[in-house]
Design goal:
There is one protein chain. With 390 residues, the protein is of the alpha/beta class. Helix 16 links the parallel strand 4 and strand 5. Among the domains are: 118 residues, DNA Cyclobutane Dipyrimidine Photolyase, subunit A, domain 3; 105 residues, HUPs (Rossmann fold, 3-Layer(aba) Sandwich). Helix content is 48%, strand content 7%. It is globular and about 65 Å long. It starts with 7 loop residues before the first helix and ends in an 11-residue tail after the last helix. The chain is built from 19 helices and five strands.
Length: 390
């Protein structure tokens, strides 16, 4: 079952338990999914990394320290998240198109069909797929290879829109990352890398599920690809100067502190937390905000609406918010909706962690072209620090 809450202590404990397997064992066995009741061959740290209760740099450096060069595959996989994030940050039109489709008549028609209902209720009769639906809903997690095969069956065998599958994943995954999720589904469908699709096979699923599944009737030919115009590539914003005015530290589920917010660097007069989304994530956000407020010696205010945020800012006596960089996705959209509501302007300052500041601009092309920057990331003195310190 999915956890009631997520904590940094849990993340550190899980990392410590996994580290002995982060070297050659991980490279050899990471694609094998023995099932939700087994420890398996992967770290299952993704929900903690997704919400930055632990930083990618912490995982990568711990693995390198424990295994040296043998940890390269694990480090690569950790860095995929930074690559996907950077790729989408420079192509926000991909996210906008995806969200527009979800509101379209075509999407509504697909949702009303029996194939879609059977898929999300696990009634397709396809071995593995229906079990994965139940596992996803119950635990908020699926092994990466199961995700790939699930998406392939959804798109190529069931012939359902990839966008609805991506939305189904985001609804349930505790580690649901808008960039990795959207771009991975596009890759399976044949949109991310032109001319390439991922077509699941009976043999691959049998091997990677450790013999638990052997589905039949899978598509042998990919679904037709609807070609899209290339998305425009935008320039990433430069570092913002740190605000001089007293600020309210804004905590969101995009960054729950990793190895610190560097609180001594800014005059923080209060803590506000945008609390939305899945219950374990909302609980983690509220808990982190409460802990930070206690450390600073101030109060914490939770909000999900403009009125609640206005009340918090009045109590703190400032209209300046300071937060970690909010990437393209649902949290940014939710916050923008609050900030853009009518009323006196609220000043938002975003600080980018050095890990992201180095990684994201390098994601202009494919992951192969991105890989050289991993050495730079690993050499950073303080990868969890913030760009443009005061």
């Amino acid at each position: 079952m999915r956890p009631e809450a997520l904590t940094r202590a849990q993340a550190l404990e899980r990392l410590s338990a996994f580290l002995p397997r982060a070297g050659s064992a991980y490279a050899r066995e990471r694609n094998i999914d023995p099932g939700p009741e087994e420890t398996g061959h992967v770290s299952r740290l993704s929900p903690y990394v997704r919400h930055r209760l632990i930083g990618e740099w912490e995982l990568a450096r711990a693995a390198e320290k424990a295994h040296g060069a043998a940890a390269s595959k694990f480090i690569d996989e950790v860095c995929w998240r930074a690559y996907w994030r950077g790729y989408l940050e420079m192509r926000p039109a991909i996210w906008a198109r995806y969200m527009d489709y979800l509101l379209s008549d075509e999407a509504e028609t697909a949702r009303s069909g029996e194939t879609y209902r059977a898929a999300i209720e696990g009634r397709t009769g396809i071995d593995a797929f229906d079990v994965w639906v139940s596992e996803l809903i119950a635990t908020g997690y699926l092994h990466n290879h199961a995700r790939m095969s699930f998406a392939s069956i959804w798109v190529h065998t069931l012939r359902l829109p990839w966008q609805l599958g991506a939305a189904f994943f985001l609804e349930h995954l505790l580690d649901g990352d808008e960039a990795a999720n959207t771009l991975s589904w596009r890759w399976v469908a044949g949109l991310h890398t032109p001319g390439k699709v991922y077509l699941a096979s009976t043999e691959a699923i049998a091997t990677c599920s450790a013999g638990r599944f052997r589905p039949t009737g899978l598509a042998r030919n990919p679904a037709p690809v609807v070609i899209e115009p290339p998305p425009p590539v935008v320039t990433l914003p430069t570092a913002q100067p740190a605000p001089r005015a007293p600020s309210v530290l804004l905590v969101t589920s995009e960054d729950l502190g990793a190895d610190g917010f560097r609180l001594a660097e800014q005059p923080i007069v209060g803590v506000a937390a945008l609390v939305t989304g899945k219950a374990p994530v909302a609980a983690a956000t509220a808990s982190v905000a409460q802990t930070l407020a206690q450390q600073i010696g101030t109060e914490v205010r939770l909000f999900s609406s403009r009125a609640e945020l206005e009340s918090a800012l009045r109590s703190f006596g400032t209209r300046t918010l300071l937060t970690s960089r909010l990437p393209v996705g649902l949290t940014r959209a939710e916050l923008n909706a609050v900030l853009n509501d009518t009323g006196e302007p609220i000043h938002l300052f975003e600080r980018t962690r050095l890990w992201d500041a180095v990684a994201w601009p390098a994601a202009a092309r494919g992951f192969f072209a991105f890989r050289p920057v991993i050495l730079h990331l690993m050499a950073l003195t303080d990868p969890g620090g913030f760009q443009g310190r005061p």
